[in-house]
Amino acid sequence: MSNSLSQVAKTKTRLCREGCPFCLLDKRLIESHLISKGIYSLVGGDANEAIRVNSRLIMHTSRQTKDVLLCQECDNSLNRNGENWIIPKLARADGKFFFLDILQELPPDTEKEPFKVYGAAKNPSIDVNKIVHFAMGIFWKASVHSWTGNGNTPRIELGPYRDHLRDFLRGDAPFPKNVSLNLFVQPRNRVLIWIAEPSRGKAKACRNFSFYVPGIRFDLYVGKQIRDQIRQLCFYANPAHPIVVYDSSNRFLDLKKEMERTARKSKRVKNLFI
User: Fold this and answer.
1) CA dist 28 to 73, 143, 191, Å?
2) What is d(CA 23, CA 25) in angstroms, rounded to the nearest whole number?
3) What is the pLDDT of residues 44-57, one digit of tens each?
4) Which among 69, 62, 35, 33 is positioned nearest to 48, based on CA atoms?
5) Is this prediction's pTM over 0.90?
6) Residue ranges covered by each domain of the chain
7) Range 96-135 burial, b when 16+ CB lie within 10 A, else e
8) Mean model confidence pLDDT for the chain
């Protein structure tokens, strides 16, 4: 067995001994995805490969971020309770964006350029609970594992809120206090068909994190000093369930500038940046 295969075998054995971090039971673990498997098939670029962004890499790739993490039952639970609803509605390379279509079935509650805010509570076609479960599931998975194959440091650090997210996802506790989940949807003509994996933001008073799947950016804030403006936009806690349509592509260009110092870019991706 090669050294790399041996390392993978050791990692899988170690994970199996630790048990499932979601149900906390000693069960056989399977390979799980950080970003839902079904999304990769929607974001194919050249050679049917997705553009993936993380703190180390910006590239076209057919490789998917996955590792042995959850038991079959818990992995299925995350799929069933969120992923299956939202994935078919994400933006696609052919211009289809069913989630935006559904959102625009009703006029915005607030419109002040460059923002349009829609209250999902008034739209029966939007399943708030499924969206929240999808997003919180990805943030939670990023907080319990490194997703590097041989690292021990979780992708993001949620501190005590990690267990609060887990309890909420399992239905054992209400939505956590001092947590805000905010949704930003790209205008149709500014959609990036990318995957940006969960990463830490630059907020100082609290911790903030974000990830992006085609057409939608999810921001998570945790801490007692979350600004009131952010709390008011919490997709779950605000009874109106606000969704903001806003072009946040400049945020990715800023991320690109930051990554130029730390991340590798494949040759095919370099020409995608301004």
Assistant:
1) 10, 21, 39
2) 5
3) 644 344 555 555 55
4) 62
5) no
6) 3-270
7) ebebbebbbeeebeeeeeeebbbbbeebeebbeebbbbbb
8) 84
